[in-house]
Amino acid sequence: MPVTPLHPTILPLWLNAVPKKPKAILREAICGVMDRVDQILSRRDAMTPPARLRVRVGCFASYIRIRRYRAVAEEFVDHLSRIGGLTWRSRMLDIGCGCGQMAAPLTSIIGPEGCYEGFDPDAEAIAWCRERISLRFPHFRFASADLANNLYNPRGSVRPEDFRFPYPDHSFDLILLKSVFTHMPHSPMSHYLQEVRRMLRPRGRCLASFFLLNDEARAGIRAGKSVYAFSYAGEGCFVIDPRISDYVVAHDESLLRETATRDGLQVSDPIYYGAWSGRSDYVSFQDMVLFSRDSDIHGSSI
User: Fold this and answer.
1) Tens digit of pLDDT for each residue in 70-121?
2) Distance (Å, rounded) from C-alpha 17 to C-alpha 193?
3) Do the beta carbons of residue 137 and residue 143 sit within 8 Å?
4) How many CB atoms lie within 10 A of CB 251?
């Protein structure tokens, strides 16, 4: 039975103009208070990270709350099972795994016959996952690299469009990119799709979330029904705030389909459209796209 999609708490854009130092001090103070409250009420378990790590992987006002953080993970586990074909033997890669939001519930699904690999540029989050998850579940492994990211690793030495993921060809049955392409312009997105194609096994699948612009989404924007307007053109994409070009990013659906085909992937219809644009019929908040390897273009798979 489908779960009820969860909408993020949308904060006003003027908050982006608050200087970084006082904003960081305020965030740390709020997170510290929330951690103390969670401790008193016994709401945190061994694989639930502290608030300062949780709020890095989603909206601050939403993920400061443990219940919302876990509920989103449970929703995506359901999507991975129903749409992505997740099983106890899956060999899965979680790109942008953060502090283990998806890994924690997946420990009860993916057994030692399969494996989970998580990757993120946030070194502190990866260290936490290794200590709290990998030690208990050795087939759950986490990696980081000095990958440039405006939020988590602004001094990173490797650009996303130049990055080669540290995994062999044909390693995974299932790859997840949850809220990754919603913060990435076109060129690095295309490079990531090429890497996804390289790492997928024959008949492997990739589930990725997007904000997709098509006729229906644009109509919702014009009617004032959408959460985001995407009023500014970015690098092959559209953004809500040109001052922070990777804050929230939308991609044109037609261009995405062309790019995926060129990069050796097929979009497996139907696309599972989200509620963000004001649709009354939706599956989640963001749009979800299932990709598969395109062997007809690139020859037979091994």
Assistant:
1) 999 999 999 999 999 999 999 999 999 999 999 999 999 999 999 999 999 9
2) 33
3) no
4) 25
DSSP letters for 123-152 = HHHHHHHIIIIITT-TTEEEE---B-BTTT
Phi, psi of 267, rounded to the nearest 5 degrees: -80, 120
For 168-189, the pLDDT digits (tens) are 999 999 999 999 999 999 999 9
Distance between start and end Cα atoms, the chain: 36
Backbone angles phi, psi at 219, to 5 degrees: -65, -40
Q: To which H or E segment does residue 61 belong?
A: helix 60-63
Q: Exposed, middle or buried, 245 (CB in 10 Å: 0-12/13-18/19+)?
A: middle
Helical spans, DSSP H, in 169-288? 186-199, 215-222, 253-262
Sequence-separated (6 or more) residues with CB below 8 Å from residue 67: 43
Distances (CA, A) of 260 to 208, 256, 292, 294: 12, 6, 10, 9
Instruction: Return the closest-CA partner of residue 167 out of 91, 84, 70.
Output: 91
**Angle formed at CA 250 by CA 240 and CA 53, multiple of 5 degrees:** 75
Supply angle C-alpha 64, 225, 214, rounded to 5.
Answer: 100
Q: Does domain 70-298 have CATH number 1.10.3720.10?
A: no
Report long-range pairs for 16-25 (Cβ below 8 Å, ≥24 apart): 16/241, 16/243, 16/244, 16/247
User: Under DSSP, is residue 201 helix (H, G, I), strand (E, B) or coil?
Assistant: strand
Please tell me the total number of residues recorded for the chain in this structure.
302
Answering whether pTM is above 0.70, one says yes
| Cβ atoms within 10 Å, residue 257 | 17
